[in-house]
């Protein structure tokens, strides 16, 4: 990075000198070539690391497990989001959805559709994956003793349904992902829906689901790696490489948005009452269409909640909810063919449902909001990626008696389908 900065300073300095002395043009061109070479070398090293087998095995699973451990302290907030919007949800489709990708994979294999592996190699890979996933999940359930949200038992952490769903989704994508990008989209969409339903059914915390998803993916990656060591090239079908990227591809995307709200300020409801919020959660969808590699337009829909504190020490049992829709400009710069940094500038509308406090009720209200943010994107496959973001939102007051705005940060990650 120091080399890049020095190159930029050098180019600027020599440009000024060359305006006065044309003889310096050749020197400036050499400096410019040097900077381009440094940048290209950095991009190549970054892509080489990102393309390594170890990184490809861990780039999603490890962040999911770490993320699950990090958000454990925020589980109550995400459960409040469920209680606010789906308090009576009770469905059992997730008991079957977890196996759907594996059932489709076996059906296609039995029908003679060519996959990555022969029958023997695939079954060995899947057996390793299932053993690793099952032993890890059951060991953690019996040692951590985390109580389920509904209080039914103390085997909540991690989510076995979610681990199974992401394990079978990864198996299906490994075997048939070469057929179409929609194979992975459908498989991981089904797995994500399984995890969300486990939370909606009040059977798991968010940390259970994130950790379970990470365990499912990691177990499958390791299971296939062990089978590859045993079988080597035997029973392996090679297909067109899906991991070829162009640095200047348009980074259009659609993503699932999950984040933690970090309030930076509060406001006064009236002269006697100061209203503020503690950390909370946000969930929704975000997407953007890029006209070129650098500039695009898009939007975001989120529902969020945060815990309420009145007069700095009185915690309320209710939560501060918000539903927002916004749109605007998105910006991106490719550090390499796989890694991009981005930002955005959004404006939109936020709606606050009726808020009941201990001694008062704030009626429903809406207002104009502004937002911005920065992000780091990794393109894992031709049509899949992961974004880490830090968003800033300027939100209007919930109270009609206040003209103050609230400042809110949202820290999180989103799983992307790149278009």
UniProtKB/TrEMBL annotation:
Q: What is this protein called?
A: Phosphatase PAP2 family protein
**Is the Signal keyword given for this protein?**
yes
Q: Which domain of life is it from?
A: Bacteria
Leader sequence segment: 1-19
- Keywords (A to Z) from UniProt: Signal
Output the InterPro entries linked to this UniProt entry: OMP/PagP_B-barrel, PAP2/HPO, PAP2/HPO_sf
Residues forming the Phosphatidic acid phosphatase type 2/haloperoxidase domain are 123-224
Provenance organism: Jilunia laotingensis
Query: What SMART domains does its record include?
Result: acidPPc
